[in-house]
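Researcher: Can you fold this with BIS(adenosine)-5'-pentaphosphate in place?
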Amino acid sequence: MANETARNIGPVILLGPPGAGKGTQSKQIVDRYGVPQISTGDLLRDHVGRGTELGLEARVIMARGELVPDELMYGIVATRLREADCQRGYVLDGFPRTAAQAGWLDAFLEKEVFEKSEKCPPVVIQLLVDYTQLLLRLTGRRSCPTCGRLYNIHFQPPLVDELCDVDGSKLVIRNDDREEVISGRLAAYETQTRRVADYYRAQRRLVAVNADRPMGDVTAQIFGVIDSHCLGGC
Ligand code: AP5
């Protein structure tokens, strides 16, 4: 197999509702192509954990399952995308999430990246999952606070109940995976983030994959999309 960790893949955007598997599949892309995962949810949770000004503002909004205002997102995304490890490409997990964020990203890439390096347009992959399956994935999700590994009590349980297989840490439930918050997050997706798919579909850049399949099947579909995208341009 060719050395996948040496070539440019450009930006990969994973779109999908909460629980679609964006974080899970991002980690597979990171492993295969050697590019970083940029999860805006993780960046925000880091600010919340450190108690920064942005974190204090975001904490209340995230606890309601609503989207953090676009203007607050642009600074943290721009700062991250300018870091050296993003030069060959990266996976965007959770961004863009509004049509305005998608327009902002296009303008940013055009100005700040394409002017400096070889053009490699984003590939936009939409993960399609049935609503009932999403609820099971979100209510069953557990994560390791030490190594970040994801589990699911329904689909990928740890070997020992509530303990990480890798380092034995006690698994945690994300604050916004409570049932009363999940409905708000899914509603925010329907009203705001679906428009992002429309935005990219209108530009013929959207590729949908069936993510209502076992993880390995979804990963294989995604790798196929990235590989054919790169053959066509990067
Ligand atoms: P964020 O952290 O981005 O959360 P999300 O989009 O709600 O997505 P999740 O992380 O819940 O799901 P996922 O698709 O990554 O699924 P996962 O792989 O974990 O955002 C949180 C909050 O931050 C937002 O509500 C908002 O307030 C704010 N925010 C973030 N970005 C923002 C932005 N750009 N603008 C404004 N606000 C923003 O999988 C879920 C579970 O399913 C796991 O247990 C996993 O093991 C399991 N699973 C995955 N794939 C499969 C499979 N194929 N089969 C069976 N189980 C599977």
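Model: Folded with BIS(adenosine)-5'-pentaphosphate in place. The first strand starts at residue 10 and ends at 15.
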